[in-house]
């Protein structure tokens, strides 16, 4: 009978932490860039220009409708050929996950922008607020507030999906875990620990989504 | 300008939605500075549309509106509506459905426009806001969010928010009809208070008691035109037009 030896994992503590650091860095960068991209895409999808609407629509549907792993391979192998420049693993990973995060968060922003009703805009006009003040002081804060819970879920998804970059050789937490498991022939122990690390970070965030959501719904229920 | 000059002069106002739904079909209304006009009429008769046009929220098809003798709204040759934004800022409106900004607390709602539009300092605006809230019995709610207020409180805050800009004309569109009956009085009291201070206003209401108490003048509006226009005792008490009589009997259950 096979026995488990979790102690072996401790030996690779440092390598795992380094991998986790890469994962967190990658995720955070892509969250920030992806949210900016997503907000711009949401504006484009609601714009008056049919071209902007069309291009952004196709983009979003494409990235939401294809496996992230395929997108990753595509960026990793095809983008350098198209651009004619070498891309580091990190750069490919950032580009791929940012494009993905942009697509999913744009849907979130789009729904929240729509939820700011016409009555709110009427009130702005009646108070003499300029279009700029209207956008920055009334529409944007409400849209971001409403988007916050779903955005937080998007972030958790991205954090977990980021494990895919290990497939293109980026030394993230998943990649380090796989290496250790190959070297030690202890896949069960090592991968369980890796899964636990992902879980310990993702779980509080998913719980937070519920709390944040309830608070925001209570605040905006008028 | 003589003191008999009209505060608002609406001439030949036509307004449709998409050219198909003709809502206002040639309105002529002249309002003097001391007037408190109550507009009554059947549902779909264009009362809200009239107020929205006056607030500068809608495009018009033709006609013009003067405010204190100055051009305010007109339709130019190519059918585009021209609105004088400066005049618009001297008009305040309170809507039927609460339109407070839910992400701001009560004080935040009150000071947003004065600080952002008029460049007033936050401290000065807050001070004025607190004075208004105190007057309206809402001082304790200054830091509450709209979702924590009753309907009556929300409407009083909405009125206070409009008053922060020192309007020369206030528009009220059925501001109590979304309220629970026991909350109607507190909002009507606030508006009556404003009336005592000679604030010119146009009010759309289905509340007979309120109409009688606040109006200096009542306009019965149906089918997009003014059917009857006169002092409250006459229009509400002894209407000349058959359509007015019918409406008042039906809605207010009054037999003449
Ligand atoms: N945004 C809009 N688009 C199209 N039609 C509209 C719009 N707003 C109002 N209408 C139509 O214009 C007509 C007049 O509406 P309005 O709201 O001014 O009536 P009202 O007198 O205020 O009625 P109520 O007593 O029910 O509030 C109605 O037939 C209504 O359906
Ligand atoms: Mg109406």
List its salient traits.
heterodimer; A: about 220 residues; mainly alpha; MetI-like fold; B: about 260 residues; alpha/beta; six-stranded mixed β-sheet; five-stranded antiparallel β-sheet; about 35% helix; globular; binds adenosine-5'-triphosphate; binds magnesium ion
The average pLDDT of chain A is 90
Percent helix of chain A: over 70%
Query: Would you tell me the overall average pLDDT of chain B?
Result: 92
Question: What percentage of the residues of chain A does DSSP assign to strands (E)?
Answer: under 5%
Order of helices and strands of chain A: HHHHHHHHH
**Structure ligands:** adenosine-5'-triphosphate, magnesium ion
Q: What multimeric state do the chains show?
A: heterodimer
Examine the coordinates and then state which fold CATH places here, giving the name of the CATH topology of chain A. MetI-like fold
Largest interface: A-B, 21 and 29 residues
- Helix content estimate of chain B: 25-40%
Order of helices and strands of chain B: EEEHEEEHEHHHEHEHEEHH
Notes on the structure:
The complex is a heterodimer of chains A (222) and B (256). With 222 residues, chain A is mainly α. Chain A has one domain: MetI-like fold (Orthogonal Bundle). Chain A has helices at 7-10, 13-45, 50-65, 68-83, 89-114, 118-126, 131-161, 173-184, 187-220. In chain A, helix 2 packs antiparallel against helix 7. The longest helix of chain A has 34 residues, at 187-220. The model of chain A has no long low-confidence stretch (mean pLDDT 90). By secondary structure, chain B is α/β, with parallel strands linked by helices. Chain B has helices at 47-54, 85-88, 106-117, 122-135, 151-163, 181-196, 208-214, 232-237, 242-252, and strands at 8-17, 21-31, 36-40, 62-67, 70-75, 81-83, 91-94, 169-173, 201-204, 217-222, 225-230. Chain B is globular and about 50 Å long. Bound molecules: adenosine-5'-triphosphate and magnesium ion.
């Amino acid at each position: 009978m096979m026995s488990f030896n979790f102690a072996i994992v401790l030996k690779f503590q440092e390598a795992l932490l380094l991998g986790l650091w890469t994962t967190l860095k990658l995720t955070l960068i892509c969250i920030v860039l992806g949210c900016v991209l997503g907000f711009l895409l949401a504006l484009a999808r609601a714009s008056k220009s049919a071209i902007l609407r069309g291009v952004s629509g196709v983009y979003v549907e494409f990235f939401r409708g294809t496996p992230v792993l395929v997108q990753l391979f595509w960026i990793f192998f095809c983008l350098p050929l198209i651009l004619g420049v070498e891309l580091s693993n990190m750069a490919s990973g950032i580009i791929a996950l940012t494009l993905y995060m942009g697509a999913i968060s744009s849907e979130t922003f789009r729904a929240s922008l729509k939820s700011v009703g016409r009555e709110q805009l009427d009130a702005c006009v009646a108070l003499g607020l300029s279009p700029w003040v209207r956008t920055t002081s009334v529409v944007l804060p409400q849209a971001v507030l409403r988007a916050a819970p779903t955005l937080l879920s998007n972030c958790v998804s991205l954090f977990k999906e980021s494990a895919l970059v290990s497939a293109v050789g980026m030394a993230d937490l998943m990649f380090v875990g796989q290496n250790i498991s190959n070297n030690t022939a202890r896949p069960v122990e090592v991968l369980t620990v890796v899964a636990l690390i992902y879980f310990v970070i993702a779980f509080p965030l998913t719980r937070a989504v519920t709390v944040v959501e309830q608070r925001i719904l209570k605040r905006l229920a008028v | 300008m003589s003191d008999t000059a009209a505060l608002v002069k609406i001439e030949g106002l036509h307004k449709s939605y998409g050219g198909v739904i003709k809502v206002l079909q040639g309105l002529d209304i002249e309002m003097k500075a001391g007037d408190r006009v109550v507009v009554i009429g059947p549902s779909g008769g264009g009362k809200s549309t009239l107020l929205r046009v006056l607030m500068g929220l809608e495009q018009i098809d033709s006609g013009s509106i003067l405010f204190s003798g100055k051009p305010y709204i007109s339709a130019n040759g190519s059918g585009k509506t021209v609105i004088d934004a400066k005049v618009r800022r001297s008009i305040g409106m309170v809507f039927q459905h609460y339109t407070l900004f839910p992400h701001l607390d009560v004080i935040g709602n009150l000071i947003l426009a004065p600080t952002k539009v008029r460049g007033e300092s936050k401290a000065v605006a807050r001070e004025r806001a607190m004075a208004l809230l105190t007057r309206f019995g809402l001082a304790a709610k200054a830091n509450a969010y709209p979702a924590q207020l009753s309907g009556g409180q929300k409407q009083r805050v909405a009125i206070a928010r409009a008053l922060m800009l020192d309007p020369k004309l206030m528009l009220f569109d059925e501001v109590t009809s979304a309220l629970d009956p026991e909350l109607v009085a507190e909002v009507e009291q606030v508006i009556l208070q404003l009336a005592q201070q000679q604030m010119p206003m146009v009010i759309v209401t289905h509340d007979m008691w309120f109409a009688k108490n606040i109006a200096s003048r009542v306009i019965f509006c149906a089918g997009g035109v003014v059917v009857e226009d006169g002092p409250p005792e006459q229009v509400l008490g002894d209407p000349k037009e058959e359509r007015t009589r019918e409406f008042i009997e039906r809605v207010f259950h009054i037999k003449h």
